[in-house]
Design brief:
Blueprint: E1 18-19, E2 23-32, E3 35-42, E4 47-53, H1 56-59, H2 62-75, E5 86-91, E6 96-101, E7 105-107, H3 108-113, H4 126-143, E8 155-158, E9 163-165, H5 170-181, H6 196-199, H7 206-222, H8 232-238, H9 244-251, H10 260-269, H11 281-287, H12 334-372, H13 376-393, E10 396-403, E11 408-411, E12 414-418, E13 421-426, E14 429-436, E15 443-449, E16 454-460, E17 465-473, E18 478-484, E19 496-499, E20 502-507, E21 509-516, E22 523-529, E23 534-540, E24 544-551, E25 556-559, E26 562-566, E27 569-574, E28 577-584, E29 591-597, E30 602-608, E31 620-622, E32 627-632, E33 635-639, E34 653-657, E35 661-664, H14 670-677, H15 696-712, E36 720-723, H16 727-735, H17 746-749, E37 781-787, E38 795-797, E39 808-811, E40 827-830, E41 839-840, E42 844-847
């Protein structure tokens, strides 16, 4: 656990235990950087409290304990509804703890993480910021106490939604003490929330908490503190953080606009110089608009409507504007508009008169003059021209529609647009029409344009057809035909199922053909049927022959999870393509064989099976470790204890173990550990003593390295690995078919507090249980694979424990514990990184999870 062995603060602490002759432990609430916190019942006052156990280095230091007692006495004076109450400082010479108010809720740090964008909006923080500023103002001015470690993790929200400030002065004092006793350099507080003055070790002041308040609000509104990566100290001392809006853009998160007063106030709190910050939390609240605010006079605009005959005119834009001016009155525009209309009519009439009427009158007058002069031929020519011009001026139209639409329509010699279309101003006469559309027969016809009429043409196009020829090997197979519609057209044909060989007439278009044979994968073909053409679709289901042999013979041949026979095996009709099978024979390694089956040919697959290092139901010794692995068969047992002393052993759950596994005959020894890991971590020295002071993470690394070594050597069964036993596998093996508290006589089977002389003992020195396993009770605690969690009750199969949690399970008790803490059903847990001289492990070989 880094430089401080905080694991020592939890040794021997289990739910139900009574400490300091007063408090009964209920459950662990969590662990911070400087202590472990338990929920406990104060038996004297009859209330629940939070007990913060101090690191062993602090509890053993008399000067440190004296300092913390003094700080606790100062904190007793903090009696604000938004500050977590400190009740007492308790110690017994071996350990020490601070008793404080228990807050059932979450911290603002946890609540922020749960927000959709990972940050709060200002509107969602107002109540808590008001309460926080009130608490700080009270502590600074009334109690004269500075927090020195203000951050989101120390701001709790209880089940009523009220904010509570935790660890007032305590966390920072513990940090100072640890820094002194462990000779670590540093100052109290958390660097990302510390002011420059606090970071430089200057005397604590209220303005340090104001800086931390600003850093806390910055993180709650953006998702990150002002400085959060790289070397924090030089940034706090020299760098100005970006605005919160800029930080949100940098983190690519969005949300409501942060109010300007919040941006400015939080920036002021983060000023490098203490004098430039708000000088109190009350001032911060005022700047944020959360304190008493001056009344704002609100003016109501004049919304009176015009009275009498006044018409509401346009809005006045200045003193010169007049809502009833002639230039904007609609009534004043009527004469002008009428004049314009009359002018347009006269202009149109003039155009007709001088452009058409006058020239026509001149032509008629010229014809009459020529006739009077005897020039009959010239007069006839003029009359013909006049009649021809009149005929050309007469027009008609054509409307063409097709079903389906979208066909190309050609009228006369001119290519036109696609249907439907309308042609206007066509000369009188007959026109040839040709209509074409892909997948349909061409249509040819004629239309006649008559004077002042539209020729309305509706054409229903006829679908083109072709032939689909279906064949297969062998014949007589099912073929499903599905047509694909052409653009703008209905489907060419409904889905139909046919038998090969067969020819069928179908509308033109694209078709999917799916051939089927029982036991074979479907074969799909795509064909295009053209107009008056023939498309061929063929399915080929020709088979091959497969022969599988092995030495020795008699191996199961497994395809997928189905046993299809034993070697030698001949399969006369096999689907062409890649084929594989697994050969399984007891006492031998499974082997996979495979090859490409070709239609009409025989494929022979042969395998020489190797002897297996592990055989189900038989013992095996790991080479180089001299560690015997005991086979554990599948079975059912009741997990837990109905009469046990702790709630976490209940409810009793019926567990079914379906997969056999192997378990180490003894706990892993120091000699075996050194052979794999090359280190000597144990406090008690001896090659045949159980290895201890190894964490759950260390034990899993031992398993990983051993698995890698044995897999490379080819000694592991396929799908198996060395690991830690699950909690269910451990208790099942420990009980060895028994149902009582122990698997036999405890004195005969276990080294525990009553006979161990306060130290570990060589493994295998006591009597084994009914399945040949030694030291399942006592000697050292044994790590299990599971996260710690509650039993589900009822019946379960191959349980793996909780999916997540704070600690990993360990079982069996140890050399220093009394008999009742070495029972088969007793449960305990430690953080995965905990190392202790009463904590080791036992090796399992189990199927990969």
């Amino acid at each position: 656990m880094d430089d401080l062995d905080l694991g020592k603060t939890i040794i021997g602490l289990v739910a139900g235990q009574k400490v300091f002759r007063r408090y009964t432990l209920k459950r662990m609430l969590g662990r911070g950087g400087m202590g472990v916190v338990w929920l406990a019942r104060d038996e004297e006052l009859g209330r629940e409290v939070a007990l913060k156990f101090l690191p062993e280095t602090v509890a053993a230091d008399r000067a440190a304990v004296a300092d913390l007692k003094h700080e606790t006495r100062r904190s007793l004076d903090l009696t604000h509804p938004n500050i977590v109450r400190i009740h007492d400082f308790v110690s017994d010479g071996r350990s020490a703890a601070i008793s404080m108010e228990y807050v059932a809720g979450d911290s603002l740090s946890g609540l922020r993480t749960d927000q959709p964008q990972g940050h709060f909006e200002a509107a969602g923080l107002t109540q808590w910021v008001q309460q926080l500023c009130g608490a700080l103002d009270y502590a600074h001015t009334k109690a004269k106490v500075v927090h020195r470690d203000l951050k989101p993790a120390n701001l709790m929200v209880d089940d009523r939604g009220d904010l509570k400030v935790a660890d007032f002065g305590i966390a920072a004092s513990i940090t100072d003490t640890v820094s002194r006793t462990s000779r670590q350099e540093g100052s109290s507080g958390t660097p990302v929330y510390m002011s420059p003055q606090q970071m430089m070790g200057e005397k604590a002041a209220a303005t340090d908490d104001i800086y931390s308040l600003g850093a806390t609000l910055y993180e709650l509104l953006t998702g990150k503190p002002p400085f959060y990566s790289g070397r924090i100290e030089p940034q706090v001392l020299n760098k100005v953080p970006p605005s919160m809006a800029e930080r949100r853009r940098e983190l690519e998160v969005d949300g409501a606009v942060i109010p300007l007063e919040w941006e400015e106030t939080i920036a002021a709190c983060l000023a490098k110089e203490a004098a430039d910050r708000p000088q109190s939390a009350g001032e911060v609240a005022e700047r944020l608009g959360l304190g008493s605010s001056p009344k704002v006079e609100r003016r109501t605009p004049n919304l009176q409507r015009p009275t009498g005959d006044e018409s509401p005119g346009p809005t006045k834009l200045g003193p010169e504007s007049d809502s009833r001016s002639e230039t904007t009155n609609p009534r004043s525009r009527i004469p002008a508009m009428a004049g314009i209309a009359v002018g347009l009519v006269l202009l149109g009439f003039a155009g007709w008169y001088f452009g058409l009427h006058v020239p026509e009158q001149k032509r008629l007058a010229e014809i009459a003059r020529l006739e009077r002069a005897g020039q009959e031929l010239e007069a006839a020519r003029l009359r013909n021209e006049q009649e021809r011009a009149a005929a050309e001026a007469v027009r008609g139209g054509i409307v063409v529609r097709t079903t389906p639409s979208g066909a190309e329509v050609r009228v006369g010699a001119v290519a036109m647009e696609r249907s439907p279309l309308t042609l206007k101003d066509q000369k009188l006469g007959k026109y040839p029409v040709r209509i074409r559309l892909e997948g349909y027969e061409d249509w040819n016809g004629e239309v006649e344009v008559k004077e002042n009429e539209f020729f309305d043409l509706d054409v229903a196009l006829v679908r083109s057809t072709g032939t689909l020829a279906l064949t297969s090997e062998p014949a007589g197979l099912e073929a499903e035909v599905v047509g694909r519609a052409l653009p703008g057209a209905p489907p060419p044909a409904a889905k139909q199922t046919l038998r090969t060989p067969q020819e069928v007439k179908l509308p033109t278009g694209n078709y999917h053909v799916i051939f089927r044979r029982a036991g074979w994968p479907d074969q799909a073909r795509t064909v295009e049927i053209g107009r008056n053409g023939t498309a061929v679709a063929a399915g080929d289901f020709s088979s091959g022959r497969l022969v599988i042999t092995s030495t020795p013979s008699g191996a199961e041949v497994v395809s997928g999870e189905q046993v299809i026979g034993r070697t030698p095996l001949t399969l006369p009709e096999v689907i062409p393509g890649r084929q594989s099978a697994e050969l399984r024979l007891k006492g031998h390694k499974a082997q996979t064989v495979g090859g490409e089956v070709v239609a009409g040919q025989e494929l022979r697959l042969e395998a020489a099976l190797e002897k297996a290092f592990y055989t189900e139901g038989e013992k095996a010794t790991i080479p180089g470790l001299v560690l015997e692995m005991i086979p554990i068969a599948s079975g059912t047992f009741p997990m837990g204890s109905a009469s046990g002393g702790f709630d976490h052993e209940r409810p009793v759950t019926q567990v079914r173990i379906t997969k056999a596994y192997w378990l180490g005959e003894t706990e892993v020894t120091q000699d075996q550990w050194e052979a794999v890991m090359g280190t000597k971590p144990s406090r008690f020295k001896g090659k045949n003593l159980p290895v201890e002071q190894v964490s759950w993470t260390d034990a899993m690394e031992f398993c990983r390295k051993l698995t890698e070594r044995e897999r490379l050597a080819g000694r592991l069964p396929e799908g198996y690995e060395y690991t830690l036993p699950t909690e269910a596998q451990w208790e099942y093996a420990c009980r060895a078919g028994t149902t009582g508290d122990y698997a036999g006589s405890l004195d005969a089977m276990a080294w525990y507090g009553g006979n161990s002389d306060n130290q570990t003992k060589p493994v295998g020195g006591k009597q084994a249980n009914g399945w040949g396993l030694y030291d399942m009770h006592g000697n050292v605690w044994e790590w299990c694979l599971d996260w710690y969690g509650n039993y589900p009750g009822g019946s379960v199969t191959d349980p793996n424990g909780a999916s997540s949690g704070s600690g990993r399970v360990n079982r069996g008790g140890s050399w220093e514990l009394p008999a009742d803490l070495c029972r088969s059903a007793l449960r305990n847990w430690f953080f995965p990184g905990t190392r202790w001289y009463g904590l080791g492990f036992r090796l399992a070989l189990s199927s990969v999870r």
